[in-house]
UniProtKB/TrEMBL annotation:
Coiled coil: none annotated. Residues 6-438 form the Lacto-N-biose phosphorylase-like N-terminal TIM barrel domain. InterPro entries: Class_I_gatase-like, Glyco_hydro_b, Ig-like_fold, Lact_bio_phlase-like_N, Lacto-N-biose_phosphorylase, LBP_C, LBP_M. It holds the Pfam family Lact_bio_phlase. Keywords: Glycosyltransferase, Transferase. This is 1,3-beta-galactosyl-N-acetylhexosamine phosphorylase. Its EC number is 2.4.1.211. It is an enzyme of class 2 (transferase). One of its GO terms (molecular function) is 1,3-beta-galactosyl-N-acetylhexosamine phosphorylase activity. It comes from Suipraeoptans intestinalis. Gene3D superfamilies: 3.40.50.880, Glycosidases, Golgi alpha-mannosidase II, Immunoglobulins. The keyword Glycosyltransferase applies. Residues 666-717 form the Lacto-N-biose phosphorylase C-terminal domain.
Amino acid sequence: MSKARGRVTLPSQSGFLTETKEIMEKWGADALRDSDGTKLDQELKELDAKIYTTYFVARGHNDFAREHMDECQQMLLMSKRNLATSTELTIDFLDGYFREQVVPDYRHDPHTWWEVIDRTTGEVLPVSCWQVDTQKHLVLLEQAIPFHEYTVSFFVYAIWDPTQMYNHITNDWGDKPHEIPFDVRLPHSGRFATDYLTSWLKENPDTDVVRFTTFFYHFTLVFNEEAREKFVDWFGYGATVSIQAFEEFEAEYGYALRPEDIVDNGYYNTAFRVPTKAYLDYMDFIQRFVAKKAKELVDITHAAGKEAMMFLGDNWIGTEPYGPYFREIGMDAVVGSVGGGATLRLISDIPHVKYTEGRFLPYFFPDTFYEGNDPCVEAVENWLSARRALMRSPLDRIGYGGYLSLAYQFPKFIDYIAQVTEEFRTIYDNVKGKRPYCGLKVAVLNAWGRLRSWQTHMVAHALWYKQTYSYFGVLEALSGAAVDVSFLSFQDIRTGGIPADVDVILNVGDAGTAFSGGEEWLDPKLVTAIRQWVYGGGAFLGIGEPSAIHHQGRFFQLADVLGVDKELGYTLSTDKYFHTALSSHFITADAKDAFCFGESQHNIYALSRQTEILEYSDNEVHLAAHPYGKGRGVYISGLPYSHENTRLLMRAMYYAAHKEEAFRRWHTDNLFCEVHAYPETGKYAIVNNSNDTQSTVFYDGNGEATQVTLKPCQILWK
């Protein structure tokens, strides 16, 4: 039985009243929600609980959509690369795409809006050189150059919402109609969005919270010919484009967008790409439209006496909670999926809302809740990783999603979540509104800055990728660490300099990406500003290929700060004598086992005798520090998330900032334990982040030591 009630949202479904009441009691839930594919019947709505109702603004209204197929949402896609072997070439531009999701736009003249590009030269072909067969969906080139490659960039209509498509396939929805997305920028759809919400609110008097899922434009999710994901970018603006949007953009900005500004060589402007001016302009254009239109719906919701909640997923593009226009929407709450500490902070740190809510894993779907599987394994892992971040910046509410009838078949899981909800309420009561002790102010520097707070190196909302886990681990480590984290863009430094309260700048990522910076580092003003700041006592920590672009005989443009550079093969004739690692160092003092740098970087070498080499193997440097005037640089070749690497990162930051003497304030010597202090209240918590018993020496705010033992997963409040 729950000792307390509140701050927990439970998914339910029709015909599941008795079981819902039982779990509400066990978990102390005070809100009920439907999910994509479920509904709450009247008996459930009459329970003593706040009622969340999912609301789809631009999908789920097929009767309207079929009457206005010319207002379907659009996308710009790029065909496969096609090799010409003669002067004539036929391109099946839909090859590789799922034809139940997209159809070509022939309502607007392809010769006006499409592009055929010679990808060998980059030349855009004159429209006189190609024709479109609208019956067979082919582009016919008449003046191709043999053995050049060609692509077609073309507009399509999206005729199946990608999230509903995913759920349709995952949950085997059979003959359930395909939901058609429509574009509220267009006149009939724009009016329908406001008119339908007004009538819907009258028809749903039991709804307390309208859960907008989300507003208008889905993140870029395109399926292949086998109905499997072809391209997914959780930040992608690919589904915001339309002929009308292009025309309105040109009227406002004074220049026309090209299809290439969107398809971007087939990269589609993923968050890993350093954004172009045209793409940044287009994003700002979309964000302003979304904020204005979303505010209309939120105002209607408020006028009906309901709260407006936004789901941070699905159709969230343009809402950007850390962007300049989010405040104007007037949302009451944001809810999102919690994959770990970084995604929790992504939600919990959102400004300008009354409350935040996290959907914890696992979702109650058949891919997890099936006979023979133990969903508690995922639940424990998810809770422990997210709990670190809760101790720094708590959500206001937690909950789950999916089919409650599936979860109910696993009593062990139901009992475990009862423990989770109880512990969450305890954390919230002790932590909410209390500023935690922060030993350092850390700024993560990349091309996106604040706009992508807690969102670096994500592809599809914190899923694991071989090329990113060595960097995303930095965010995961920071999410629960006793540091104050901010996000800084290169443009921020150009226009305003480095904030005075920053102790450490982190630059993390592969060369050429938005997160490392690519061509941003060719700007002398930027490089000079950071060098001067570090020389005067600042700290720069680079992970992977920081400040990397080949220029003037350097690959790392801040190699002089870091004390290392990367061998590109151009300086193999230059002998490199510095390869002896120090036997001990402040940064490596807690290291007991072999270092784990993940995918790591290779061919890194020390520049001089002043470089403090801390790990050297396979004839390359993986960890180093370097004095630079009154400041320091530190280099790490990769940092996947682990307890050991979290400690390594903390030590590296304290060392770089010349604050070693403060390291043992509010500290534990056991890597699996952390302490979170709240000076305003005089409280602190020693946390066991593992599922095993741990003993640790705990250091209080004065550095005085005490031995404590913690049970598995225990939080010891003092």
